[in-house]
Amino acid sequence: MASLFVFNTPILNSPHGVMLMPLLPNALASVLPTAFDADQRYSVDLHMHSTASDGALSPTDLVTLCAGRGLTHMALTDHDTMEGVEEASRAAQQAGLCLVPGCELSTRWQGINIHVVALMPGGLQGPMIEGLEQQREARIKRAEVIAERLEKMGLPNALEKARAQAGSDRPLGRPDFARALVAEGVVADWAGAFKRYLGSGKKGDVKAHWPEISEAVGWVVASGGVAVLAHPLRYGLTRRKRGLLMDTFMEAGGQGVELVSGQQNPDATRDLARQLVERELYASLGSDFHFPGSYAAPGSMSSVPRTAAPPIWQHPRLAHLRDAPSGMLGAKPLNKLS
Ligand code: AMP
Ligand code: MN
Ligand code: MN
Ligand code: MN
Q1: What residues have CB less than 8 Å from 182, skipping those under 6 apart?
Q2: How confident is the model over 4-43, as pLDDT tens digits?
Q3: Distance from chain centroid for Cα 296
Q4: Contact by Cβ (8 Å): 62, 298
Q5: β-strand 98-109 against 44-45: which pairing, if any?
Q6: 253: nearest Cα among 219, 231, 221
Q7: For labeling, which of 22, 31, 77, 149 is most exposed (least CB within 10 Å)?
Q8: DSSP string, 135-187
Q9: Which residue has the CA at smallest separation from atom 14 of ligand 1?
Q10: CB of 45 within 8 A of CB of 301?
Q11: Which of 54, 139, 196, 287 to probe ligand 1 with, by most ligand atoms within 8 A of CB?
Q12: Structure pTM?
């Protein structure tokens, strides 16, 4: 029998990314969820950004970096778009790693901007096609509203300035406005831009254009994908309210939650794991990588505690990933993209 690999064990934050390594004796391991049970070691990161949204690296350069860091499985999850997936798929084939097509959907729940990672093993298909068109239009309209507000607050020609920062014609995001505020000397740095103008509850945090979380989760599930609640510890919610969010998410068909997103307090992770187990949710993990030099390099997440929450790749829609030869998903024709 192939040796068992336990999802919740030692994660080496090595230059090779998160390594899933066997830790427990098999007797113990059998009562815990197992990860890829091949005689190979895998390194997985299911949340990353490229220049298709607010990441610094092109899809190709991102894949190359991931391959260099020893990742075997990666998901490209740009904000509200899968435009980078086709290029990333080609690069993944070249680099010999398995690419999971995806995106990170902007949604709303109780007046809060909540992110949902869509893992789309079949590529862009079904209601997601229409859904992403809707997101694109929402993002364009939202940028106009953000620009109007920032103009009133001392940044003339905000839309043009943010566009110049984006350096391409993709729909704008708050980071483009943050860079414009810094470039114009309105704030000293990026953090200040979010703290004063763009962060949660500030004037530039415009949410009205995003769909309810249930609607977005519906697109994912009806399109052959798996919906994953992104970075649940980053919304400033109480434990109870986070539980309510998970319940709404599940009622809509959501089945995964990011148990670990980038660097996290281990006690908070353990507590979050209990909320997943209570609800029989799958556990996902990702760095939320945006640019080199940040603390969250591809594959560099905090360790995953011992937990009974099954890893996301045991989900029936993703189970073929662990058997996928390198690049297999990347090689698969992607509807509307190939
Ligand atoms: P958007 O998708 O346009 O709403 O922009 C959201 C992105 O802005 C996030 O994915 C982060 O990359 C960045 N961001 C959001 N909040 C902050 C914050 N408080 N500090 C720094 N970056 C942030
Ligand atoms: Mn971002
Ligand atoms: Mn996010
Ligand atoms: Mn993200």
Answers
A1: 188, 189, 190, 192, 193
A2: 232 333 333 333 333 333 333 333 322 223 333 333 457 8
A3: 12
A4: yes
A5: unpaired
A6: 221
A7: 31
A8: HHHHHHHHHHHHHHHHHHTT-TTHHHHHHHHH-SSSPP-HHHHHHHHHHTTSS
A9: 175
A10: yes
A11: 54
A12: 0.87
Which of 189, 198, 202 gets mutated to test ligand 1 (max ligand atoms within 8 A of its CB)? 198
**Ligand 3 center from residue 301 Cα (angstroms):** 15
Of 116, 194, 203, 233, which is best to mutate to test ligand 1, by the most ligand atoms within 8 angstroms of its C-beta?
194
Length of the chain equals 338
State if residue 60 touches ligand 1 by the CB under 6 angstroms criterion.
no
For the record, the structure tokens of 101 come out as 């097509």
CB distance 175 to ligand 1 below 6 Å: yes
The token pair that represents 160 in the structure block: 């043009």
For 269-313, the pLDDT digits (tens) are: 999 999 999 999 999 999 999 999 988 899 888 877 777 888 898
